[in-house]
Amino acid sequence: MRVLVACEFSGVVREAFRARGHDAYSCDLLSAEDAGAHIQDDVRRHLKDGWDLMIAHPPCTHLAVSGARWFKHKLTEQDGALWFVRDLMAAPIPRICIENPISVISSRIRKPDQIIQPWMFGHGETEATCLWRKGLPKLVPTNIVEGREARVHRMAPGPDRWKERSRTYRGIADAMADQWGSGLADAA
Ligand SMILES: C[S@@+](CC[C@H](N)C(=O)[O-])C[C@H]1O[C@@H](n2cnc3c(N)ncnc32)[C@H](O)[C@@H]1O
């Protein structure tokens, strides 16, 4: 399957799909952290390149409700961020998952199809993550564990903190690749 992992610099989701034999590429304005198959560009220029599946992690800086107190000062940026999400949702790709924290996407575009947590996928952490799905079934928890720490609390301040905060959890990437990489006959 040809898989586009939009807005990914880490390669975590890309490598989960590659490990299962898929032709997966990450795409980000930034370079990849590893030497994997990566397109460094605006992903909107690559949405029509014949993908079977897209997993997208659009920036949440102007969308996440955790930053709501700043919304009134950045309405233009927020509008741009919402149009970016709409462009991703409208991509001519049969299976799409868009991932974001609790955000204004829910009120301005549509409610998410499901909300997952890292602790459902083997990581003892809490971080509500919304999924907007097209042509894909619900992502089923793979390993529910104890421990409910927020990962942001154990991160030292620094210029790369946002990267650590936004990196996709390996357990979630593995679940996506296992469950969405094949056997999609029951897709909703
Ligand atoms: C919240 S981070 C997602 C990180 C991802 N979970 C990972 O593990 O690499 C959002 C990413 O979107 C990228 N981005 C923003 N606008 C983009 C665009 N137009 N095309 C491609 N990537 C974009 C940013 O550079 C940033 O790396």
Task: Give a short synopsis of this structure.
This protein is 23% helix and 18% strand. It is an alpha/beta fold and 188 residues long. The longest helix is centred in the middle third of the chain and has 15 residues, at 75-89.
Description:
By secondary structure, the chain is an alpha/beta fold. Helix content is 23%, strand content 18%. The chain has helices at residues 12-18, 75-89, 105-108, 161-166, 170-180; strands at 2-6, 23-28, 38-40, 53-56, 95-101, 114-116, 129-134. The chain has a seven-stranded mixed β-sheet, sandwiched between helices. Strand 4, helix 2 (75-89) and strand 5 form a beta-alpha-beta unit. Helix 1 runs parallel beside helix 5. The longest helix has 15 residues, at 75-89. It is globular, with a radius of gyration of 16 Å. The chain starts with a strand and ends in an 8-residue tail after the last helix. The model has no long low-confidence stretch (mean pLDDT 92). Bound molecules: S-adenosylmethionine. S-adenosylmethionine (SAM) is lined by residues 7-10, 12, 27-30, 42-44, 57, 59-60, 166-168.
List the helices and strands and how they pair.
Layout: E1 2-6, H1 12-18, E2 23-28, E3 38-40, E4 53-56, H2 75-89, E5 95-101, H3 105-108, E6 114-116, E7 129-134, H4 161-166, H5 170-180
Residues 7-10, 12, 27-30, 42-44, 57, 59-60, 166-168 line the site of S-adenosylmethionine.
